[in-house]
Amino acid sequence: MVQEDLFIAALQNKETQNRAFQQLVSQYKERLYWHIRRIVLDHDDADDVLQNTFLKIYRNIDSFKGESALFSWMYRIATNESLSFLKQKARKANITDKEMQESKIQNLQADVYFEGSDIQLKLQAAIAKLPEKQRLVFNMKYFEELKYEEMSQILDTSVGALKSSYHHAVKKLEEYLTKD
Question: Name one GO molecular function term (predicted).
């Protein structure tokens, strides 16, 4: 924790901020990219949201109070940026959020950056059909292997509610994947 406190101090100090921020980007860009990618599904969109996420982190690092881990704070920003991006994109296309998710899944097959098998594509399609909260919780738990306590800080939800969301998500995915 002492090391993180020193790193945060370097991020908040105008003389060391740029160097510390470069280190932050280097350390977290891949993890945040994949977190964002699982939400927005598209590589180019994920790159845009990642850039916006780091911009927001840079602009707001002075307001970070250390009430949660830096990692959790950044993940919350990335999650909110991703969800806002999807809502804004759906609004511009004049379609519902659900229709946007379905469109994203259809585009996933044509995405040159998606190297998954038919099974992986079917799993992604099933995940996309989950309600937003269940989709987030499932991705964080299954793919990112986050602990419920970390997810609780990121999503500002109780551990019990997260466990319930994960359980319901798994049941829905099993049902979807086992039917022909």
Answer: DNA binding
The CATH code of domain 116-180 reads 1.10.10.10
Where are the chain's structural domains?
1-97, 116-180
Q: How far apart are CA 77 and CA 24, in angstroms?
A: 14
Q: How many CB atoms lie within 10 A of CB 102?
A: 15
* Of 25, 38, 20, 8, the residue nearest 145 (C-alpha): 38
CA distance 24 to 99: 35
Q: Which CATH class is domain 1-97?
A: mainly alpha
| pLDDT at 35 exceeding the cut of 80 | yes
| Per-residue pLDDT at 68 | 86
Q: Is 133 helix (H, G, I), strand (E, B) or coil?
A: helix
Distances, alpha carbon 58 to alpha carbons 44, 73, 83, 93, in Å: 21, 12, 20, 30
Task: Tell me how far apart the alpha carbons of residues 135 and 105 are, in angstroms, rounded to a whole number.
Answer: 14
The model carries a pTM of 0.84
For 29, how many CA atoms within 13 A lie in the half-sphere containing its CB?
A: 12
Give the span between the Cα atoms of 163 and 28, in whole angstroms. Answer: 26
Residues 6+ apart with CB under 8 A from 95: 103
Q: Look at the block and give the residue holding tokens 């551990």.
A: 159
Q: What is the dihedral of CA 28, 30, 32, 33, to 10 degrees?
A: 150
